[in-house]
Design goal:
- By secondary structure, the chain is of the alpha/beta class.
- The chain has three domains: 239 residues, Aminohydrolase, N-terminal nucleophile (Ntn) domain (Glutamine Phosphoribosylpyrophosphate, subunit 1, domain 1, 4-Layer Sandwich), CATH 3.60.20; 190 residues, 3-Layer(aba) Sandwich (Rossmann fold); 148 residues, Rossmann fold (3-Layer(aba) Sandwich), CATH 3.40.50.
- The protein is 34% helix and 25% strand.
- Helix 3 packs across helix 4, helix 4 packs across helix 5 and helix 14 crosses helix 17.
- It is globular.
- Bound molecules: 2-deoxy-2-amino glucitol-6-phosphate.
- 2-deoxy-2-amino glucitol-6-phosphate binds next to helix 8.
């Protein structure tokens, strides 16, 4: 999603804007631009492409102390220079993250008022409307002007604004999209998230919905409606924010390899406390919501928690859940899973269910993110900043947390005790290393040129292959589909022909014989089968039913999904690498989907 930066202070602004935009590249974008005050005029430089392309058209030595910047992930209008941000109408120059849903209606009104538009964007409309309010304000009171805009704007927006006649202030306003203000020494920063300026300050103010910020080099004033208010200044630990790729070629590979240490860290944080205050005895239903990989983590959570729970746990894709009929009351626990804590659909679901009087729990990675701040309770996954768009370590940390929630349920029902399982958790980091060190070259060589791939699994293994399928789609652009083994005969086996490539995960004991039968069915029809199988499965595998086999260690069923995903992550990574894809920033994708 788009990234926003701003700087006002005693130093030259442009290097800070470029630095901040570079730190936000991981969010995904297709164009970039900055605006800054130069000789009392707000200049704009913007271009399609990367920050490096922007740097070619910017003189970073221009003496200016105030500016804003933007990386655009196109929502309205083609990817071109005209549509990229910043936009300027009259006295107002802005950058925007989000979607102005009623932009067409406002555009029609502004056209009647004589405004002309150069771009296809909703942002230019937003800019023009603010200019309209500014021009028609008798007081030129910016708080009053922005409050008038809040009454009219529909949708989600984080907006950062410069005003031609105000040379020492930057204005911010937001609804349903993140914006933070970094507090420096005689300088202040604005950004979509703290990573932009965490190397310059550890003190940040998180703007809340419908708040207005007025930022100068020496002061930050926050208004809610017309009242000056005090938002807490939070101190952010730089360790919670990534520190480069180190010796890895891509962030994604680094983050895959970090998973071993991450599990060790999670053991030290949570295994002993075991989330003692997590008590679901008062609930009669649990709804887990998330998008993409977070949704898959929720599905794993369902399987794990239902091992010991005595009522069904339902998992929903957030973008569906927010519009479907839902059955939520004060006996429902809604668990929101989100790495970024900013995903618009997941956030919207929480706002919806909170009106139903239920309790909410967040399993979130980014500290102080919007979801982390609005749930009744948050469990942080402590994975550190996840830069690669394709989620890996955040996923394993999410399913780790779910395994402990399941363990907690089992302990409370007296069906499992922690002593039986602690050793499995403690051995997990080394076992992850063992799986990380398996050689996947032969698998990669076989599949990297395929037009499509089939992933096969049953029960909880089906969820793992759904995640594996998503990984390879999003970074290698090979189409793949995950199928439940039992479903093949109901239609999809018609797709299997000679040399169709099928990757199957077999770790779930009670369905292992069944999935092997399914594998034989596809093999009998000419498929090329890659089997990822847990050792110690008490079934004999006919060597004619597969072409390649990857054996992974067996661990307790509560944590087996953590091991199972490692081969699928690495296969996706190395296939994408062999195909020369932009692994950390796949086309069309954003790290945090802050628009619906
Ligand atoms: C995962 O590889 C994807 N990048 C995407 O599906 C992601 O999991 C989804 O957008 C949810 O994001 P969140 O966890 O930040 O809410």
């Amino acid at each position: 999603m788009c990234g926003i930066v701003g700087y006002v202070g005693k130093k030259n602004a442009i290097p800070y804007l470029i630095q901040g935009l570079r730190k936000l590249e991981y969010r995904g974008y297709d164009s970039a631009g900055i605006a800054y005050l130069d000789n009392n005029k707000i200049e704009i430089k913007k271009t399609v492409g990367r920050i490096s392309d922007l740097e070619k058209i910017v003189n970073i030595n221009i003496p200016t102390n105030i500016g804003i910047g933007h990386t655009r992930w196109a929502t309205h209008g083609k990817v071109n220079n005209t549509n990229s941000h910043p936009h300027q109408v009259g006295d107002i120059t802005i950058v925007h993250n989000g979607i102005l849903e009623n932009y067409q209606e406002l555009k029609n009104e502004l056209l009647k008022l004589g405004y002309k538009f150069k771009t296809e964007t909703d942002t230019e409309v937003l800019c023009a409307y603010i200019d309209y309010e500014y021009k028609n304000s008798s007081t030129k009171d910016m708080v009053e002007i922005f409050n008038n805009c809040f009454k009219v704007f529909k949708g989600s927006y984080a907006v950062t604004i410069m005003v031609a006649s105000i040379s020492d202030k930057i204005f911010v306003m937001k609804k349903d999209n993140p914006l933070v203000i970094g507090i420096g020494e005689s300088e202040n920063y604005i950004a979509s998230d703290v990573s932009a300026f965490i190397s310059n300050t550890c003190k940040f103010i998180y703007l809340e919905d419908m708040q207005i910020g007025i930022v100068s080099s020496s002061d930050v004033s926050i208004y809610q409606e017309n009242k000056l208010i005090n938002n807490d200044i939070k101190t952010i630990n730089i360790d919670d924010v990534g520190n480069g790729k180190e010796e890895y070629e891509h962030y994604m590979l680094k983050e895959i390899y970090e998973q071993s240490n991450l599990i060790e860290k999670l053991n030290s944080i949570y295994l002993n406390s075991n989330l003692d205050d997590f008590d679901i005895s008062k609930y009669t239903s649990i709804h887990i919501i998330g998008c993409g990989t977070a949704y898959h983590a929720g599905l794993i959570g369902k399987y794990l928690m239902e091992k010991y729970n005595d009522f069904e746990i339902n998992v929903y894709i957030a973008s569906e859940y927010r519009y479907q009929k839902i059955f939520v009351n004060d006996k429902t626990l809604v668990i929101a899973v989100s790495q970024s804590g900013e995903t618009a659909d997941t956030l919207a679901c929480l706002k919806r269910v909170k009106k139903c009087g239920c309790d909410t729990l967040g399993i979130v990675n980014v500290k102080n993110s919007t979801i982390a701040r609005i749930v009744d309770r948050v469990i942080y996954t402590m994975a550190g900043q996840e830069i690669a768009v394709a989620s890996t370590k955040a996923y394993t940390s999410q399913i780790y947390i779910f395994s402990l929630l399941a363990l907690k349920i089992g302990i409370s029902k007296g069906v499992i005790n922690k002593e039986d399982i602690t050793s499995y958790y403690n051995e997990l980091p080394q076992l992850i290393n063992n799986v990380l060190n398996i050689n996947y070259d032969r698998v990669v060589k076989k599949i990297f040129n395929n037009e499509y791939l089939f992933y096969l699994g049953r029960n909880i293994d089906y969820v793992s292959v759904m995640e594996g399928s998503l990984k390879i789609k999003e970074i290698s652009y090979i189409h793949s589909e995950a199928y439940q083994g039992g479903e093949l005969k109901h239609g999809t086996i018609s797709l299997i022909e000679k040399d169709s490539c099928v990757i199957s995960l077999v770790s779930n004991e009670e369905t292992s014989a069944k999935i092997i039968s399914n594998i034989k069915e596809v093999k009998a029809r000419g498929a090329y089968v890659i089997l990822i199988i847990k050792d110690s499965l008490n079934i004999n595998i006919d060597i004619n039913c597969y072409d390649q086999m990857i054996i992974i260690p067996s661990v307790h069923e509560l944590i087996q999904p953590i091991l199972n995903i490692i081969p699928l992550q690495l296969i996706a990574y190395y296939v994408a690498k062999k195909r020369g894809c932009d692994i950390d920033k796949p086309r069309n994708l954003a790290k945090s989907v802050t628009v619906e």
